[in-house]
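Holo model, zinc ion. Inputs:
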Amino acid sequence: MTATTLFPGRYVQGPDALAHLSDEVARYGERGLFLVDPYVQDHIFPRYRADLQTLDLQEIRFGGECTQEEIDRIEEAAEPTVEFVAGVGGGKTMDTSKAVADDLGVSTIIVPTLASTDAPCSALSVLYTADGSFDRYRFYPRNPDMVVVDTSVVIEAGERLLVAGMGDALSTWFEAEACRQSGAPNMTGQQGSMTAYSLARLCYDTLLEYGEMALNALHAGASSPPLEKIVEANTLLSGIGFESGGLASCHAIHNGLTMLEATHDAYHGEKVAVGVQASLFLRDTPPRRIDEVYDFCETVGLPTALEDIGLHDPSEEDLRLVARRATEASETIHNEPVPITVDRVVAALRTADRTGRNRKREPVAA
Ligand SMILES: [Zn+2]
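Output:
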């Protein structure tokens, strides 16, 4: 049985990490293509342009969706001499830049301006269709050469995005643990390693211990050790944990939820959190653990009911659509150590939703 673990080539994180971006990216060449999220290009990137002027850079404004059409557009515009592609922005900017770098055969640099997903460190992209539905995963032969996270910029992105990142990170240990128990493979198709499972557990423990304190730092507008720990958990631990530990039901249910238009305003990590809650009722989870997850989600402000992600009183038909998508033969939900059916997924979603709503009505006495 072969185990495989993947890592980004270099991971740099701290307040003002972007102040020295030119030194960091110069390791990978002098001529680079920067794919920049539109908001970041207008409001954040101008601060760093002077520092980057020593390099020969081409800057392209990201179109907003990680689709095959967008990847083709950027590749047509790219100058033939680029030595690296740097994606600056959110998950979709990063995923698009990974695809472009791979097609062009050059180094990949990822500069997340938020800590809302586990996308930065991984060797895969999530492609969407033009209407915003999940299309497919695209895998690459290697992880990003470098990931640079400036926590001051992450603070500017605001609370909801950091919390969404905690939702994505919350799934990491549950899904890795499901794969470990069932012997299911990780994202490489081989077994997860002790390293990956341990980092996934560290990710979960870090969220429970520092999640609330990190939000206090964010509101204070200044980084602090708890905030740095949460950004690292959301980005590095969650990235290594999901990719090398494996995915299971939480992300499959997320993929199912994207089928419903009403969920499109909820962030990836917010829908994944709902997937985590539903996953607790697919397995025979101890009540103590269920309480721990809901307590955490309530404390940091993650969704705990379907209405929180835009699904007000969903029909049986809607939930079956979600469950059918989540249980497609190719989906990671079958990595769970229990048998999976459409009916069981619908029941888990309903039970998780009811649990969350009941808790809102009857807050537990302090
Ligand atoms: Zn995710």
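Residues 117-118, 168, 251, 268, 272 surround zinc ion (CB under 6 Å). The chain has two domains: 11-155, 158-361.
Archived with the compound record.
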